[in-house]
Design goal:
By secondary structure, this protein is mainly β. It has four domains: 1-25; 35-127, Quinohemoprotein amine dehydrogenase alpha subunit, domain 2 (Lipocalin, Beta Barrel); 135-242, Lipocalin (Beta Barrel); 254-365, Quinohemoprotein amine dehydrogenase alpha subunit, domain 2 (Lipocalin), CATH 2.40.128. It has three helices and 26 strands. The longest helix is centred in the N-terminal third of the chain and has 26 residues, at 2-27.
């Protein structure tokens, strides 16, 4: 009798355990695919592309996706089709690129193959989480960094560049890029990351150039990779140290500065010189703005703006004012101006590119 009771209890217990096991298995949902998954696609031994799939789920539970590559501006929000995901296996197609991807989930990442005509490349993608910058790392990277680049060594041209980085309370890092001498000021950077002494960022205004550098001995050294036939394949070397952009202080007396201080504006019509693409470019009417003011250090400074060309804060050098005759240079654009000051009016001529461009320019002081 006791044996029968024990056997009955065991017989009852086994189906119960099996039922609990089945319930547990049924309750385990498939891993969520929604969000950004990122990986590196090795195109060749020297080139790799960052690949980002952005997955979304519609009201019926079906997945959609778009493909981005921060390394290639042409690949942006490219639609994917035929997205299937069973919690383990992922498949999708990208018709615009004649490509498809298939992979299997293992240890939190999808390991698979990207296929295009003539190529089958391994690609591992994993859920993307923007790196958080620690307080120690923030102390190292935050602030202004200044340096110079030579985009065309044969032309013997050196350009000052400035990078600024800032970290918020949550450890999110942002940055801006400036070419002070060309009037490009605090252009926003994207995909800014800094971890283990390695910095990476994108500069949309510079043809989505990629900047990759290493911090060592208080110096950021790396390369600025710009897309283009004339761009060096390995990028332009960049070396940065903490500091501010150089100040172009003017050597004017207080009386001379008082006669010029403020904002001056005018329009000029110019005939651009011939170029390989157009032997006779059309004339252009440009608004020119001069600003004479003092900086935070009390120095006299002046800047040229060209709103029509979206150029701002181009430093003005070598300003002289003698007997009402004003002259100044804008070195980075190889331009200069000479005019006669009469109250709130400047009447003169703008000359650029060693005389290839000449145009009358009348400027009036703004209220």
């Amino acid at each position: 009798m006791n044996k029968w009771l024990r056997m009955t209890a065991i017989g009852t217990l086994l189906p119960a355990l099996m039922l609990v096991s089945l319930i547990t298995l049924a309750a385990a949902p498939a891993p969520e695919l929604t969000g950004m998954w990122q990986g590196k696609l090795a195109v060749d031994p020297k080139t790799s592309l960052t690949i980002q799939f952005n997955f979304a789920k519609d009201a019926k539970g079906a997945y959609t996706a778009t493909l981005n590559s921060p390394d290639n501006p042409a690949i942006k929000n490219t639609p994917a089709s035929g997205v299937t995901w069973d919690g383990t296996n992922l498949k999708l197609q990208v018709p615009a690129l004649q490509g498809n991807y298939a992979g299997t989930l293992k240890n939190g990442a999808v390991t698979g193959t990207w296929t295009q005509p003539g190529a089958n490349l391994p690609l591992v993608i994993a859920p993307y989480a923007k790196p958080v910058v620690s307080k120690q790392a923030a102390t190292q990277i935050n602030g202004s960094w200044i340096g110079s680049i030579s985009p065309n060594p044969a032309a013997n041209l050196t350009i000052t560049v400035q990078f600024k980085f800032k970290t918020d309370d949550k450890g999110n890092l942002t940055g801006t890029f400036s070419i002070p001498d060309q009037g490009l000021i605090d252009s926003e950077m994207t995909d800014v990351e800094f971890a283990d002494g390695k910095l990476s960022a994108r500069i949309p205004r510079a043809n989505n150039a990629q900047f990759i550098a290493t911090l060592a001995n208080s110096e950021l050294k790396g390369n600025l990779k710009i897309s283009g036939a004339a761009a060096p394949p390995d990028g332009i070397p960049v070396s940065l140290k903490k500091g501010e952009a150089p100040v172009h202080a003017l050597k004017l007396t207080s009386e001379q500065f008082a006669a010029l201080s403020g904002k001056w504006e005018g329009k000029m019509e110019i005939q651009p010189p011939p170029n390989p693409q157009n032997a006779a470019p059309p004339k252009m009417t440009l608004t020119m703005v001069l600003r004479f003011n003092t900086n935070t250090s009390g120095q006299y400074v002046a800047f040229l703006d060209s709103p029509d060309q979206k150029a701002k804060d181009i430093p003005i050098d070598d300003v002289t004012l003698t007997n009402g005759e004003l002259a100044f240079k804008v070195a980075i654009v190889r331009g200069e101006y000479k005019g006669k000051l009469a109250g709130s009016t400047l009447t003169g001529e703008w000359v650029q590119a060693n005389g290839a461009v000449k145009a009358p320019l009348v400027l009036t002081r703004q209220p």
